[in-house]
Amino acid sequence: MPLNRLMSKVRNCRLCTDLPLGPRPLLQCASTATILIAGQAPGRRTHERGIPFDDASGERLRDWLGVDRGTFYDARHIAILPLGFCYPGSRNGGDLPPRAECAPQWRNDLLSHLPNISLTVLIGMHAQRWHMPDCATTLRDNICNWRASWPECIPLPHPSPRNVGWLKRNPVVEGELLPTLRSRVAELLTSN
Asked: Which domains does the chain possess?
């Protein structure tokens, strides 16, 4: 099935009709993309706006990547495929994990249409477990061992403002990982 037809099917997916705000799949991709952002699931604000990472987390992620908003939302260069395409709801002040039905239904088919991906940015443990089945059991261990999956994949914590304390306790992110990530992203964008 051509990518445009598959994307249409995904955007019209009603697999999870019991979502608190209803289904609204958020993703972007084009077969020319060289960078894949593999996140967890959209948050409430991005669901309401209908644009992935259109919130404070997205601002921080764009800074981490060293790209502006226009570049980030250019599907010809950057694909955004979370494990769950719809907002899953929240509990105890945080978002729920991505729904289990979404990734098995769509992910492999979508990824098969992205032959040019040279870098996958893995945001959070759900994405890291999907893309790196042999990864460590903790986010900190994955990030401290980021060179093991480099240059194809790079594990990151969620860029949420709620993770400021975690980032301060784990200086490897800003001290080593992000400068290398920005350089690789710039290289892929200029060669594409």
From this structure: 3-86+96-191 (3.40.470.10)
Query: Using one digit for the tens of pLDDT, what is the confidence trace for 106-134?
Result: 999 999 999 999 999 999 999 999 999 88
From CA 126, how far away is CA 83, in angstroms rounded? Answer: 7
Half-sphere exposure of 2 (CA within 13 A, CB side): 3
Digit-coded pLDDT (tens) for 129-173: 999 988 889 999 999 999 999 999 999 999 999 999 999 999 999
∠ CA 69-42-156, nearest 5°, is: 70
* Cβ 53 vs Cβ 61: under 8 Å: yes
Q: Among all chains, which residue has been given the structure tokens 């899953």? A: 88
Check residue 159 and give its pLDDT. 96
**Chain centre to alpha carbon of residue 120:** 8
Question: How many other CB atoms sit within 10 Å of the CB of residue 153?
Answer: 21
71: left (phi over 0), alpha (psi -120 to 50) or beta: alpha
Tokens of 105: 């239904």
